[in-house]
Amino acid sequence: MSSYAEAGVRRYRIEAVLDEATTQVCRFLHGKAFSVGEALQRFERLESLSQPEDLKQELPGGGRALLYVNRGGQETRLAEVLRSAVGTRDDVGEFRSLVSDRQLAEVGVGFPPYHGLCRTTTLGSSWSEMKSPAFRSEHAGAFGILRCSHPYVGVL
């Protein structure tokens, strides 16, 4: 997150590996966008926790049909699983979100890892925008994007 902040990236998107081992939590959060500044604040709060159980309370969990966060005995339901895609590739499944993306951030579900052995990562939203041909064409000079015909040098 600090690298995003240093680079001037204000928002980032959750990117889950969508294969047979991906959890419901990661499938649900795949593609959702969050604020870098708010994530940094949450990271500082998590870093200050000294007990493993306290950290565990901060991570999203779920049963068979609901995804939730249980913090201090207060359960916040995040989503209902309508169709599970666990065990499949390239399919997030279907969920009925019970909170907005803003509320997800407020309950602290803003960045991975979401569970042990989590493989989910983030992608800065600015990078997503910069990859589009329209953005590259319009802003090539301003961002110093290379124009090169060498077969082994890529352009954003």
Short characterization:
With 156 residues, this protein is of the alpha+beta class. It has 7 helices and 7 strands; from the N terminus they run H-E-H-E-H-H-E-E-E-E-H-E-H-H.
What's the layout of helices and strands?
Layout lengths: L1 H5 L4 E5 L8 H6 L3 E3 H12 L4 H7 L2 E2 L3 E6 L2 E10 L10 E4 L3 H6 L14 E4 H6 L2 H7 L17
Antiparallel strand pairs: 1-2, 1-7, 3-4, 4-5, 5-6
Written overview of the protein:
This protein has about 160 residues and is an alpha+beta fold. It contains 7 helices and 7 strands, in the order αβαβααββββαβαα. It has a 4-stranded antiparallel beta sheet with strand order 3-4-5-6. It has a 3-stranded antiparallel beta sheet with strand order 2-1-7. Strand 4 and strand 5 form a beta hairpin. The longest helix has 12 residues.
Please describe the structure with a list of short key phrases separated by commas or semicolons:
about 160 residues; alpha+beta; 4-stranded antiparallel sheet; 7 helices; globular; disordered C terminus
- Major sheet summary line: 4 strands, antiparallel
Class by alpha and beta content = alpha+beta
**Low-pLDDT segments, ≥5 res:** 138-156
N-end to C-end Cα span: 21 Å
Name the helicity range.
Answer: 25-40%
The number of helical elements comes to: 7
